[in-house]
Amino acid sequence: MCGIVAYYGPNQAYDFLIKGLQRLEYRGYDSAGVALLNGDLRVYKNAGKVSELEAIADNQNVTGTRGIGHTRWATHGEPNSINAHPHLSQSGDIALIHNGIIENYDTLKKVLISRGHEFKSDTDTEVLTHLIEEIKEEEQVDLLEAVRLALNEVIGAYAIVILSKNDPNTLIAARKGSPLVVGISENEGEFFLASDATPIVEYTKKVTYLDDNEIVSIHDGEMTLKTIDNVIKSPFIQELEISLDALEKGGYEHFMLKEIFEQPKSIYDSMRGRFDPVNLTFAMRSLVEYSGKIRNLDRIIIIACGTSWHAGLVGEYLIEEFGRIPVEVEYASEFRYRNPIITEDDLVIAISQSGETADTLAALEMAKEKGATIYGICNVVGSSIPRITHAGAYTHAGPEIGVASTKAFTAQVTVLTLLALGIADIRGKISKKRLREMFAELDTIPHKVELLLESCNEKCKEIAAIYQDAPNCLYLGRGYNFPVALEGALKLKEISYIHAEGYPAAEMKHGPIALIDEEMPVIVIAPKRNYYEKLLSNVQEVKARKGKIIAIVTEGDEKVKEIADHYIEIPDTEDCLTPILATIPLQLLSYYIAVNRGCNVDQPRNLAKSVTVE
Ligand code: AGP
Predict the structure, then answer these.
(1) How far is the CA of 181 from the centre of ligand 1 (A)?
(2) Pocket test for ligand 1, best of 308, 336, 351 (most atoms within 8 A of CB)
(3) What is the pLDDT of residues 412-439, one digit of tens each?
(4) Tens digit of each residue's pLDDT (9 = 90 or more) over 427-480
(5) Whether residue 215 is found in the same domain as residue 306
(6) Which one, out of 94, 144, 347, 479, has a CA that is 20 to 30 A from the CA of 295?
(7) Pocket-testing residue among 26, 405, 406, ligand 1, by greatest number of atoms within 8 A of Cβ
(8) If you average pLDDT over residues 533-545, what whole number do you get?
(9) What is the pLDDT of residue 246?
């Protein structure tokens, strides 16, 4: 939910901190702050975005070769300068930044107040800073030990970095439940820390991802690793695969538009090397390793949030159609608390672009504790979900910076398609002929997406200009495109702030039809595949009530085009693959409407890219 960065080395820290925070702003942008150690420990922080912090700090002599930085999505305490991170201890000698939630902060705060501590902010983070100093003084231990003892008293999730005026050659970091990456420079004694790899990759590709309950100490240019139980560990160092240009906007006005246009490649990458269309085999390690389990599966449960939950609904239709296994799709936030029935025979699949969504992670941990086999479909390598699952498949969509998920969704649906086909193959539910057809069609999808982006972009701009001030919008779809209707509605509402709802098309007559009038644009996803005639009837029902129809139709369609007010054509494909194509114009439509409305497309109000708190 928040973004944290830190620098330790021979150079000035400030530039890395500011640039790093700008790369992490998609994680939250209510307030931002930095602390630098240069003899003195100086903090610069402010409500608002990193650019506003820069304006403040730039006019001052901000120096120091140790520094920490934070961009916030408020959880405790409103987004103002007082609650902005970094926070200082009672003496002001220790500075700390934090991503996560200290659940027992109130109890700890009361004890500290009873010992004379005074707090400036309403945050849980400030309590941790005071606790560390209290322990350091009371127990007469060094900073690392004080942090370790303090974290043993904490309940909750954290990724923290600490600087101390009295320990100028030390930087301490720790993680539990929130991500933290340490970049190891080729330059001796130089380290870069961040919530994810994007701020680090241009400086070094050598990184280590902290695991839960690990504390890293950088002292006199040496890095050591231990657990909060005081067990020394050796860091697992790996090479980053992200390229720097993948992080830039590449000439697009917004990351979201860039990521929409990256989909031919991201869809291709999500299936690259995972099946052999000639020998009709799969090369997904997880399918091979768990084929025995898959053969005897009685049920699959898919858990996710938001857009990933919509992908899960498509996954349900795919796996039930091809694999003939019952699938339940659950909102992770509901699943984790309703004491669901989970057995060792269950396969629980978590879908998450960030791999850090708190509700999804917690629901998955619960399923694991109850004995289920857990599987992850994530986009961020090394994120928390893939680190706890028995098996999984990365979507390989590349960094998704725009808060509104686009390429991650189509990559998730592509991976779910492969998973459904693989499950069907293992369980003997699909003929080789049908498998060959599906592989052949899957191979054409990246190019079909490329053609579609070229053909529909201008049309989407035109339609967006007409409906940019619509007060509401209804999205209708059937079968595989019912989840696409939900996803299209979510895209529109989260970036343009227009209220929109997705519905199964047949469900409209059970209530929503009362909303239809000439002010109501209705987007109907009506490919010329399953349910076509029924969708035609739904379009006529809307027209009869003067609703405005924007139809997503198959190229060459005649009937729906005749009665729709506007239509966008998509290439023909297998019914089960239409979600990948139908979603593209809905993404563009939402994008252009939001741009026309002057909305902050990449960082919509109240949202953050990764919801790592409940
Ligand atoms: C999608 O556009 C939203 N930003 C949001 O619903 C997102 O899909 C949801 O928070 C889940 O995130 P995850 O895929 O990283 O778990």
Answers:
(1) 21
(2) 308
(3) 999 999 999 999 999 999 999 999 999 9
(4) 999 999 999 999 999 999 999 999 999 999 999 999 999 999 999 999 999 999
(5) no
(6) 479
(7) 405
(8) 93
(9) 67
| CA distance linking residue 182 with residue 446, whole number of Å | 35
156 shares its domain with 204: yes
Q: How many residues does the chain have?
A: 614
Cα–Cα distance measured from residue 483 to residue 89, given in angstroms and rounded to the nearest whole number: 49
Which contacts of 272-276 are long-range, i.e. CB under 8 A and separated by 24 or more positions?
272/396, 274/393, 274/418, 275/418, 275/421, 275/439, 275/442
Ligand 1 cavity residues, CB under 6 Å: 305-308, 352-354, 357, 360, 403-405, 494, 610-611
Number of domains in the chain: 3
The domain boundary residue, chosen from 240, 267, 283: 240
Active site residue 528: no
**So what's the pLDDT on residue 75?**
65
- Å from CA of 405 to ligand 1 middle: 6
Q: pTM of the full predicted structure? A: 0.76
Taking the C-alpha atoms of residue 546 and residue 261, their distance in angstroms, rounded to an integer, is 34
From the CA of 253, how far away is ligand 1's center (Å)? 22
Residue 323 has pLDDT above 80, yes or no: yes
Identify residue 300 by its one-letter amino acid code. Answer: I
Which of 196, 260, 302, 307 to mutate for ligand 1's pocket (most ligand atoms within 8 Å of CB)?
A: 307
Is residue 533 within a helix (H) or strand (E), and if so which, with residue range? helix 532-543
Q: What percent of the chain has pLDDT over 70?
A: 98
Which of the residues 2, 456, 460, 599 is marked catalytic?
Answer: 2
Which of the four pLDDT bands, split at 50, 70 and 90, describes residue 315?
A: very high
State the pLDDT at residue 500.
98
Please provide residue 511's backbone torsions phi and psi, each rounded to the nearest 5 degrees: 150, -65
Chain Cα centroid distance, residue 531: 33
Beta bridge partners of 163: 95, 171
Q: Is residue 176 part of a domain?
A: yes
Domain containing residue 88: CATH number: 3.60.20.10
Q: Of the given ranges (150-154, 250-254, 528-532), which has the lowest mean pLDDT?
A: 250-254
Q: Within this chain, do residues 552 and 591 fall inside the same structural domain, yes or no?
A: yes
Give the Å distance between the CA of 576 and the centre of ligand 1.
23
CA of 405, closest atom in ligand 1: 2
Domain range for 277: 247-430
CA of 453 relative to ligand 1 center, distance in Å: 23
Q: Which atom of ligand 1 is nearest to the CA of 307?
A: 8
3-state SS class at 597: coil
Residue nearest to atom 4 of ligand 1 (CA): 404
- From the candidates 49, 136, 493, 609, give the one annotated as an active-site residue: 609
Which ligand 1 atom sits closest to the C-alpha of 494?
2
In this structure, the answer to whether residues 219 and 254 fall within a common structural domain is no
- pLDDT, residue 80, reads 83
> Are residues 260 and 580 in contact, defined by beta-carbon separation less than 8 angstroms?
no
Decide if 136 is catalytic.
no
| pLDDT tens for each residue of 188-219 | 999 999 998 889 999 999 999 999 999 999 99
Which atom from ligand 1 is nearest to the alpha carbon of 357? 16
Same domain flag for 262 and 341: yes
Residues 558 and 506 in one domain: yes
**Atom 9 (ligand 1): residue with closest C-alpha?**
306
State residue 1's pLDDT score: 58
pLDDT at 28: 74
Cα three-residue angle 116-118-123, rounded to 5 degrees: 135
Q: Is 444 contained in some domain?
A: no
